[in-house]
Amino acid sequence: QVQLVESGGNSVQSGGSLRLSCAASGYTYSSYRMAWFRQAPGKEREGVAAINSNSETSYADSVKGRFTISQDNAKNTLYLLMNSLKPEDTAMYYCAADERWWLLLHPIPTYNYWGQGTQVTVSS
Questions:
Q1: Residues of the chain by 3-state class (helix, strand, coil), percent to 5
Q2: Which residues contact 70 (CB under 8 A, 6 or more apart)?
Q3: What's 12-40 look like in SS3?
Q4: How far apart, in whole angstroms, are the C-alpha atoms of residue 44 and residue 39?
Q5: How far is the first Cα of the chain from the last one, in angstroms, to the nearest whole number?
Q6: Which helix (H) or strand (E) holds 121?
Q7: Contact by Cβ (8 Å): 6, 79
Q8: How far apart are CA 8 and CA 118, in angstroms?
Q9: Which one, 61, 86, 99, 119, has least CB within 10 Å?
Q10: Tens digit of pLDDT for each residue in 87-100?
Q11: Element (H or E) spanning 91, and its range?
Q12: DSSP state, 102?
């Protein structure tokens, strides 16, 4: 079975940086998309960044130029480097994956596999 385990969440001050990691196991698709989503209290979940097996990427407008998604296929790990963090980036961040590589960050249909999340808190 597919397992996604996030790590790297922390509390930082505005302007700081964090790198999130998502370790994937049990995933056998050669073509795939993987993404980071986030959800703040009282808000809907939103897509942050996605990457597929062709290394194509897609970003939400709110994080373009600040966040970078990458993958290490040898380690089966997805990363999200977050720079110039703002208080509005505070949220639970989730890793997601499935085989619909052509959809990248498109939220519909929703991703098949999800991690448990890692908390990012940015203080002003």
A1: 5, 50, 45
A2: 51, 78, 79, 81
A3: EECCCCEEEEEEEECCCCCCCEEEEEEEC
A4: 6
A5: 40
A6: strand 118-123
A7: no
A8: 7
A9: 61
A10: 999 999 999 999 99
A11: strand 91-98
A12: G
